[in-house]
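Forum > Structural Biology > Help requests

Title: Can anyone predict the 3D structure of Cell division protein?

Hi all, first post here. I have the sequence for Cell division protein but no way to get a structure on my laptop. I'd be grateful if someone could post the structure tokens.
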Amino acid sequence: MSVAMIASAADRRLLDESRGTRAMTWIMAIMLFLTVLAGALGLGTLSAAVLLDRQLAGRLTVQIVEAVEAKRTNQTALALAALRASPEVTRAVEVDHAKLAMLLRPWLGTDGADPDLPIPAMIDVDLGVASDAAVARVSAAVRVAAPSARIDRHESWMSPVRDFMAMVTWLAAALVLLMAAATAAVVILAARAGLETHRDTIEVLHMLGSTDVQVARLFQRRIAIDTLLGGVIGTVIAIGVIALVGLQLAALGSDLLAGLSLGARDWMILGGLPVAFAVLATLAARQAVLTALGRYL
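Reply #1:
Sure, ran it for you. Structure tokens for Cell division protein below:
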């Protein structure tokens, strides 16, 4: 199917396009504005989820929960030796006691720096292979060396956050599909309304030898131009809003929120939405007009 995007002066007069921008353009601008925002939310959340998975994969925290300081220190040294001797472990570093006290200060106040307070020793561990079997072997080795050790897998306690991000991503994708369906419905209604408005003109065209396909091409061309123009307007405004939100997120300085960023591929997808919606509107308009002409005229 070949569709010319620029209507001739006669076509514009025939379809009353000289009256200025129609409501269809602004409807499409609003719909593309919402669609681009939903798409940016989904793509940004997906990027953050991928970054989170990459950061947490194979990461463990070993806590040596022992009240007696001498035993705690001894078990910490044994646990470190066992971890560094394990082939699955690529990094094992004890967290500085002063740093732990600083992290506990919002809850314990100045008491967090009390040397008599039995703060558990903590060891950050990175595994080369983030498999359940590797985690089980490392955990077993640590518990043999330090019976009071507790092993926390980062993926387990961050799984609710990961599940929430996945839900937001799927919700954003559903919103984009819903907006696409709504766009097709609006286009079909606009095409049918245009047929009723120009019914007499279309009958004259038929008597002059015009086919249904030629008449449909007039409507689909008009709707494609309106959709593309409105889509570009809505997309430009949405991109401005996304850029503003991105600046606000960057100012917060949060490591988790910093992952809510868009890459070059994401921007290309968002930039292609107006064209995709224009093609969708063109096809919907063509089908609606041909169906209506075949039924009523």
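The chain is about 70% helix and 10% strand. The mean pLDDT is 77.
Shout if anything looks off.
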